[in-house]
Amino acid sequence: MNSRLASLTLALVLSMAPALPLLATSANQPAPAFELPSREGPQVNLSQYKGKVVMLNFWASWCGPCRQEMPLLDSIYKKYNKLGFVLLGVNVEPDSKAANDWLKQTPVTFPVLYDKESKVSQLYNVSGMPTTVFIDRKGNVRMIHVSYKPGDESEYLNSVTSLIRE
């Protein structure tokens, strides 16, 4: 199977994943460690954000709900990043060109990372796009949200503000 067909197959499978509500994961499960290249150039390691509330948002440029939520995520990032909150957008496409082209049209201020080989997506058991993972200041996964529909940003805000207060 050529890489284009493999990418399209993965896209189709991920886009058909059912929308799941915000769920608590196993209590205080440590977030899997990773290091990925960033859009800005340097490698980003999750451990550099220990002591902060981290929101990982796994996304793809072909994903309609991802495109819809990106400006909303950026507004959350801008509002809370000075309070110990970090948002890392993790693009899951094997070729980052489409993501970079889309980001030129819809710029965001939060860091964007590239998971071209889906290693980090697998570590976090990403089953649909977008998938958002909330990590507390101690480095534990606290909640996972799969998919996006208008209004979900309220749940994101509740999670972010709750974790910042801890």
Compact overview of the structure:
With 166 residues, this protein is of the alpha/beta class. Helix content is 35%, strand content 28%.
Please characterize this protein's 3D structure.
The protein has helices at 3-15, 64-80, 97-105, 119-123, 152-165; strands spanning 20-30, 35-37, 43-45, 53-59, 85-91, 112-114, 131-135, 140-146. By secondary structure, it is of the alpha/beta class. The chain has one domain (3-165): 3-Layer(aba) Sandwich (Glutaredoxin). It contains five helices and eight strands; from the N terminus they run αββββαβαβαββα. β4 (53-59), α2 and β5 form a beta-alpha-beta unit. It has a six-stranded mixed β-sheet, with helices on one face. The protein starts with a helix and ends with a helix. α2 (64-80) packs parallel to α5. The protein is 35% helix and 28% strand. Mean pLDDT is 86; it is low at 1-27.
At the third CATH level, what is the topology name? Glutaredoxin
The helix fraction, in percent, is 25-40%
Mean pLDDT: 86
Largest sheet: number of strands, sense, barrel closure: 6 strands, mixed
Q: How does CATH name the architecture?
A: 3-Layer(aba) Sandwich
Give the C-level CATH assignment: Alpha Beta
Q: What portion of residues belong to β-strands? A: 25-35%
Number of strands: 8
Unreliable segments (pLDDT under 50, ≥5 consecutive)?
1-27
Number of helices: 5
Rg, Å, rounded: 15 Å
CATH homologous superfamily grouping? Glutaredoxin
From N to C, what is the helix and strand string?
HEEEEHEHEHEEH
Spatial strand arrangement across the major sheet? 1-8-7-4-5-6
